[in-house]
Here is the input.
Amino acid sequence: MENHAFTDDLKSGLYRAIFTRRDVRGEFLPEPVPDEVLSRILMAAHHAPSVGFMQPWSFIVIRAHETKRDVHRLFEQANAEAAGMFDGERREVYETFKLEGILESPVNICVTCDRDRAGPVVLGRTHIKSMDLYSSVCAVQNLWLAARAEGIGVGWVSIYDQPALKRVLGIPRRVVPIAYLCLGYVSCFHKKPELETVGWRPRLPLDELVCFETWEGSGDEGAGLLLERIRADQEAARQETFLSEWLE
Amino acid sequence: MENHAFTDDLKSGLYRAIFTRRDVRGEFLPEPVPDEVLSRILMAAHHAPSVGFMQPWSFIVIRAHETKRDVHRLFEQANAEAAGMFDGERREVYETFKLEGILESPVNICVTCDRDRAGPVVLGRTHIKSMDLYSSVCAVQNLWLAARAEGIGVGWVSIYDQPALKRVLGIPRRVVPIAYLCLGYVSCFHKKPELETVGWRPRLPLDELVCFETWEGSGDEGAGLLLERIRADQEAARQETFLSEWLE
Here is the structure.
């Protein structure tokens, strides 16, 4: 059997991007993102999987202050509404969070999904209509990981009124804005997700999220061995040794 | 400014995973996937971004022939319906496609989204309700890239009746199956997406999918420079030299 696995060096690049990727809000630096870096990041997004090779995504690159300001207003409005949905102490904590870096980040990118890009009948979308939306999300995740490898932070802003954003960016009816992203160099990448650090929600134990054959199915002896292995990897991740064998 | 970018070696691992990842249907080998590999792939999925650190995903690991057979029946039923949605020559071509490797792949994984995992009000999901579904898709893409680095092929099956799949796998009402994935070692990874090779749909030119400030906005001089760079990278990708400076 031919071995198509990457060398440990190459593997470590991928895993390092996955494990050190963060949602960045407060650490953006004003330095511009060079075209060759932005191009590679967009190439990575464009090579995401898509249902029926539909490639439903487009990328609206936003660098003008006026556009950012208009989008930032939508965030402020929606975020005031959002705060009101939390109660008591939770609301007070919510209001201390910085949840976007729209104005501080040098580049914003809106990733969209054109639902009509390949006509009405799309291979693989015949039974699950949201498959094209999911394809655009895969593009977002590729973009995010490539950005991390390039030293660029990304923050996904999701607190705004969607019809209002479509008006501001002139997005036609058939197109869905999937993600509004802020990109830029950063002063630091936090070691852990900020919501974990401040105690908003803990990292869930992966072994409790894995089941076998059916929902909550506990499986056979082989299942137990896999879960043991997962627990060991989790412990290594907590001790920050999971990547260390690979990291320079 | 501190440089948080990866070294070229590490970068190349990430980009190589992104550019050589394929949707695998017909090339699965029966060799089992070792637990340490499966654990790393699941760890990668679990470290995806999620709205409000919700981590809404679960992973149903399927290795029993009986379960696969039940799911394969759902595919066969839906695929017959799907074929009927294409006309004439397109239908004939569609019927030649192998669109899943459910039975041949040693492991299937259903990635789900539990919409109630963090209660009714979720930070960042207040205005866009589908954000949790998108989080689970990010987990799928992490899993797919990690699998590629491990030499494991992944195929995303999307042709089945979703309520029927929920019944087969015992998935509760509040939980959405996001992706049904087939995993295993492969005889080869194709150089290009199969749908591109057979002429079903071409790779779209990325520079035509990038706009500036607004939908179809053509931007300023700076926009032109970025587009030039993208065209150069695309040409390099077509010539298969885009990664070559990094590849061993």
